[in-house]
């Protein structure tokens, strides 16, 4: 008899002070739907088809340092400027200087959500 391999479902947890207030930003940024939860302590954001659930989790402590894990959002290179504008309209703030260019093939901009959590907007790189 062979053992069955269990493949876990991936759910990303994002700590924040107010999940209800932050949910519209991340739902809009990712194209997700706001799912279950009343913010005490969770609000789930559900992908339109497949992919990980993003769960916003209320925590009492404030964010004090750079997050150990962050989201990278990839768009086509010719869509980066428009996506930066769209994310800014949702409440994202560019952190630091201009888009970082690495070897001409990997471009990204570090941003913060309205609660100050870092994430990156990245241009899809073509190999």
Can you tell me about this structure?
With 127 residues, the chain is α+β, with helices and mostly antiparallel strands. 18% of the residues lie in helices and 33% in strands. It contains two helices and nine strands, in the order βαββββαββββ. The protein has helices at 19-30, 80-90; strands at residues 11-16, 33-34, 42-46, 53-58, 71-75, 93-94, 100-102, 106-112, 118-123. The strands form two sheets. Strands 5, 6, 7, 8 and 9 form a five-stranded mixed β-sheet that branches. Strands 1-4-3-2 form a four-stranded mixed β-sheet, covered by helices on one side. A hairpin with a 3-residue loop joins strand 7 and strand 8. The radius of gyration is 16 Å and the shape is globular.
Top keywords for this entry?
single chain; 127 residues; alpha+beta; 4-stranded mixed β-sheet; 2 helices
Brief summary of the model shown:
The chain has 127 residues and is of the alpha+beta class. It contains two helices and nine strands. The N and C termini lie far apart (43 Å).
